[in-house]
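W.,

You were right to be curious about this one. When I first looked at the sequence I had no strong expectations either way, so I just let the prediction run and decided to look at it fresh. Below is the sequence, 317 residues in total, followed by the output.
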Amino acid sequence: MKNILVIGSAGQIGSELVPALREKGYFVVAGTSGRTPLPAHLADGPTAIVNLLDHDALLGTVDRFRVDTVFNLAAILSATAESKPLAAWDVGVNGVLNLLELARDRRLSVFTPSSIGVFGPETPHAATPQDTVCRPRTMYGITKVAGELLSDYYRNKYGVDARSLRYPGLISYVTPPGGGTTDYAVDIYWKAVQNGAYECPIAAGTFMPMMFMPDALRAAVELMEADASHLRHFNSFNVHALSFDPEALAASIRRRLPDFRLSYKVNPLLQDIAESWPDALDDTAARSEWGWRPQYGLDAMTDIMLDEIAKRIGKNA
């Protein structure tokens, strides 16, 4: 892994992965759709307009920058995908297939994140196993299952170095919520600092796996740097860090903001999705095959989120 293309670099993960990789000394091309300008912290290095579905243009970018590794972060998230299922399929399946064909031709390594969205109501919810039933009921989940299977197919049939993680909900102060079911766990911090109150779309007692963004970035990089001879579950590894419900998250916030108020206005679509997902993940395979260990607990994450958001809006937290 030397010359890296990050597709979807302006999104939640990419906006932090690009600078993290550059800080490690990698040559990183920030790939963007071109619909919105790249923020300054991404545009201070090489950039490219990238359409995951345009094979020839993508090939040109790979050849121009001598790319050997692609982090494919393009996706339409769970709640948004339910209103745009065909677009979600196009990006999440046809786009992945196009990239895998290119990886086959140019011998690229490819990282395409999967998600807890691959699981469904029939999946065991407590300590969800690495190898288990994946029958999602959302278009987002369906595309992620297809992406895992396609990646393993290209690995087994053509030797493509395709790897992925099943990310839980990701929490970051850098980018705003982006249409995911777990995004309440980002929005709640912003509302806590701004207004001292939050109306939650997810019901009390609904536990979901979560992860602070620094852990998510480190997991992706460590997996791609791992010796392939040590791996068995290439597509896709469970990775776990946190599991909480809205009440536990509110309690963590109240350590710093004692007057914080939590109320509920449950969104039926989001709640149905949340209830089909695991409470927590068994990530024994990731721990044993490439040494995965999370570094952030709930209260440590809360302290950083509140401090950083307060800086951004000029308030004390």
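Here's what jumped out at me. The chain has a mean pLDDT of 94. And, maybe more interesting for your project: The first helix runs from residue 14 to 23.

Coffee later to discuss?

I.
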